[in-house]
Write a structure and sequence with these properties.
The complex is a heterodimer.
Chain A lengths: L1 H11 L1 H38 L4 E4 L16 E12 L2 E6 L1 H7 L4 E4 L6 E4 L1 H7 L6 E4 L2 E5 L1 E4 L8 E4 H8 L6 E6 L3 H10 L3 E4 L3 H41 L1 H9 L4 H38 L8 H28 L2 H5 L3
Parallel strand pairs in A: 3-9, 5-7
Antiparallel strand pairs in A: 1-10, 1-11, 2-3, 2-10, 4-8, 5-9, 6-7
Helix pairs in contact in A: 1-9, 2-7, 2-9, 2-10, 7-10, 9-10
Chain B lengths: L1 E10 L2 E11 L4 E5 L6 H8 L7 E6 L2 E2 L5 H11 E4 L11 H12 L4 H10 L15 H13 L5 E5 L7 H16 L3 E5 L3 H6 L2 E6 L2 E2 L1
Helix pairs in contact in B: 3-4, 3-5, 4-5, 5-6
Chain lengths: 345, 212
């Protein structure tokens, strides 16, 4: 009976219901891009920023090394350790090749990334040593196969890259002499964090800072717009439902006269509001998705993905907004005295 | 069953009922009669717990109702009273059957079979799925009576139940009340109709808010 009562009540007032749904839809259409920026674009930008390379270089204390780098700060999105050493008058760099590749996307590799017992000489080092892909390279007791040739356009072209652990074994050194760090978010907070761990920190790039600031500003702007639209939706719903309560005062009075308690009466109105919220939320989500795509492409040059959590949160916010807008009308409905509304016939 | 002692009902400075006292025994049919504005409906509303007296004591079915708050009055009505109105008062977008079932739902749990039985009892089994706008006045009133009876209340209160009906429908509705009376229900009817006055066990004649 409850469902029948609610659905029929909505059906007979479908025009008013539609107005309320549109009000919630507009609010949800603002909430969706806001959540998308928080959940999706920020994550995507993080990945994208990693393609810009490291924005911090970490050095150990004078003469020391970094054996276990503390990357526990939430804004640190990637690290790559480097151990530089000389052997047989050749400059070597030991690193985690996968991490280093991600951190230095402009590296051009002719051949493949080196695995265990493989080496990747920089273009200058390869020339100097007469190395090409497939050649063998002996360093002390260790033998390496050249997997390719690296062109960085920088001083790394003079080095031969090998696996970090193998570099530790050959050099007899323990830990990194340099760590590249990619940061997304408050870079100054990360610097403070790392300095508190006694690392020497050098800023490399400002890209992350500016991109993060742009994200923050867009998010703030959308939050403000969403706040206004949500407030407008609450007011719209409130006025729609108040009018509905006034129109239905005789029906409410009758229901109370024949025994409808305040709990049941409130439940009927809350259910109507929740349906309005859910309907507006679903429609608003899809409208918001279009807006998100536009914002993603125009501002951040990245496409937006469908995130289930954005959908769920948009619906929840929409239902909460609808419930908030229905509180005053429900109070009004509960205060209706049946004797007053049934009188005067 | 219903005992009123020195009931006073005031609306602002206007005194609608003045020192009303009466007793209606279980199973009695009492008619409240009097000219328009004399306080008949006000008295019925007090007995039906739709309103509460300004002063005095009103014991209905063993419960002092004068001091009940709005929620308690609603609960009391739900459990003890069946209401029939002159203007029928049905929910316009619900069918006849649903208008009866809604009273079951507010009381406890709806039972479609029982609701159909109640409508059959008032001769409305052929109009179960009709909306109020598709029913005549007499049919609407019979649905309202079915709704008033569905939770088996001890007391039936009716405000001018035949006021908007033609002779034929009036007789049909009165027959239902007669049957309820013979089944031991306590019935209180507000009416202008002297013919109904003759049917009941007692008449309370009210004038200017006083029993005369």
């Amino acid at each position: 009976m409850f469902a029948r009562l609610v659905m029929k009540s909505i059906w007979v007032r479908r025009e008013r219901f539609l107005i309320a749904v549109v009000a919630i839809m507009l609010a949800a259409a603002m909430v969706t891009p806001l959540l998308t920026i928080s959940f999706d674009i920020r994550e995507k930008m993080g990945k994208e920023l990693r393609s810009y390379g490291a924005n911090l270089i970490i050095l150990p204390e004078e003469g020391g090394s970094i054996s276990k780098f503390d990357a526990s700060h939430p804004s640190i999105i990637g690290t790559a350790p480097f151990l530089y050493f000389k052997a047989n008058n050749i400059e070597f760099a030991g690193t985690d090749m996968q991490a280093a590749r991600k951190m230095n996307p402009w590296w051009h590799i002719e051949g493949a990334l080196p695995g265990k017992e493989e080496a990747l000489p920089g273009i200058n080092a390869a020339k100097k040593q007469g190395l090409k892909t497939g050649d063998a390279l002996d360093i002390g007791d260790s033998s390496f196969k050249v997997s390719g040739v690296l062109d960085t356009g920088a001083s790394d072209d003079d080095r031969i890259f090998i696996d970090f652990e193998e570099a530790e074994a050959i050099s007899g050194k323990n830990g990194a002499t340099l760590v590249q760090v990619s940061v997304l978010g408050d870079i100054e907070a990360v610097i403070k964090f790392l300095e508190s761990k006694n690392y020497r920190v050098k800023k490399v790039r400002q890209v992350a800072e500016s991109e993060s600031a742009l994200l923050d500003k867009t998010q703030l702007l959308l939050s403000l717009v969403a706040l206004f639209v949500l407030s407008a939706a609450i007011l719209g719903l409130l006025s729609t439902m108040i009018t509905g309560v006034l129109e239905r005062s005789r029906e409410i009075g009758l229901m109370k006269a024949i025994g409808c308690g305040n709990g049941r009466l409130a439940a009927i109105f809350l259910a109507e509001a929740a349906i309005i919220g859910a309907a507006g939320g679903i429609l608003g989500y899809f409208a918001g998705l279009l807006l998100s795509q536009y914002i993603g492409m125009e501002i951040f040059r990245t496409a937006v993905s469908l995130k289930p959590e954005v959908f769920v949160l948009t619906i929840l916010v929409s239902i909460l907004v609808a419930l908030a807008g229905s509180m005053l009308p429900i109070r009004r409905a509960l205060s209706i005295e049946p004797v007053m509304t049934l009188r005067g016939d | 069953m219903i005992t009123a002692k020195n009931i006073i009902k005031k609306y602002g400075n206007t005194c609608a009922l003045k020192n009303i006292s009466f007793t209606i025994e279980k199973g009695e049919w009492a008619n409240i009669m009097g000219p328009s504005g004399s306080g008949k409906t006000t008295l019925l509303n007090l007995v039906g717990c739709l309103d509460s007296p300004t002063e005095g004591s009103l014991v209905v079915n063993g419960i002092e109702t004068a001091k009940l708050n709005q929620n308690e009055r609603t609960r009391f009505r739900r459990e003890n009273i069946g209401l029939v109105f002159q203007q029928f008062h049905m929910i316009p977008h619900l069918t006849a059957l649903e208008n009866v079932m809604i009273a079951q739902y507010f009381h406890s749990i709806e039972d479609e079979g029982e609701a159909i039985e109640a409508l059959t009892r008032v001769g409305m089994e052929h109009r179960l799925n009709h909306l109020p706008s598709q029913l005549s006045g007499g049919e609407q009133q019979r649905v309202c009576i079915a709704r008033a009876l569905i939770n088996q209340p001890e007391i039936i209160l009716a405000d001018e139940p035949t006021g908007n009906l033609d002779k034929k429908n009036e007789e049909a509705v009165l027959d239902i009340f007669r049957e309820l009376h013979s089944n031991g229900k306590t019935i209180v009817i507000v009416t202008h109709n002297p013919e109904i006055g003759e049917i009941g066990d007692m008449i309370m004649q009210i004038s200017h808010g006083e029993i005369v």
